[in-house]
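Today's session is about reading a structure prediction critically. Students often jump straight to the picture, but the first step is always the sequence itself: look for stretches that repeat, for charged clusters, for runs of hydrophobic residues. Only then move on to the predicted structure, which in these notes is written as discrete structure tokens rather than atom positions. Here is the chain we will use throughout the hour.
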Amino acid sequence: MKILVVGANGQIGRHLVSFIQENDSLEAKAMIRKQEQASFFENLGAETVVADLEQDTEAIAKAAEGVDAIVFVAGSGPHTGKDKTIMVDLDGAVKTVEAAKIAGVKRFIMISSFDTTRAAIQDASSSFAPYVAAKHYADEWLKRTDLDYTIIHPGRLTNDKGTKKVEAATEVERNEIPREDVASVIVASLENEKTIGKEFQVVTGAKSIKDAIDII
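Below is the predicted structure for this chain, in token form.
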């Protein structure tokens, strides 16, 4: 299975491409914004493609040519304004979903925020609410398609070493999770068809990633 990783140069994205390239049954195509970012992925033996989420949908669809699945791990980051949140986390995500349709790619995994319910938008701080709202509507857009989607809602992200132990369910108690483990959860979800049509929260826990994902 060949996977387009959208947001490959982000922290989760780099882990994800590395894990995909270590997996004999998977192959990564890293979507990056600048050619200068390519060397990291080329050293892993991964194909790269330069495209920007602020380009039109057709440019993203062209980047998705020849792949079997798309994983959206892009994000505007905590230090950008509301404009980037809209352009990347909402518009960029929706355009990537539409690009998947154009390119004929059925499998789609979305990395979302931990809680994107309407209540979460209302409860969020004024600075965080636009991000939660953007993720909410991107998730809803994906769920209304006929794509084979999975939506993953990770807890608070850390740069700790992955434990390979998680708790995953429709709702779990709020906790943190290493970015490295989120990448491993994505790989496990790609390999498990039971995750199609599902969305779940995931945090550090006691189960192996494979076992936790298998009972979603």
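Discussion point for the tutorial: The CA atoms of residues 124 and 132 lie 8 Å apart.
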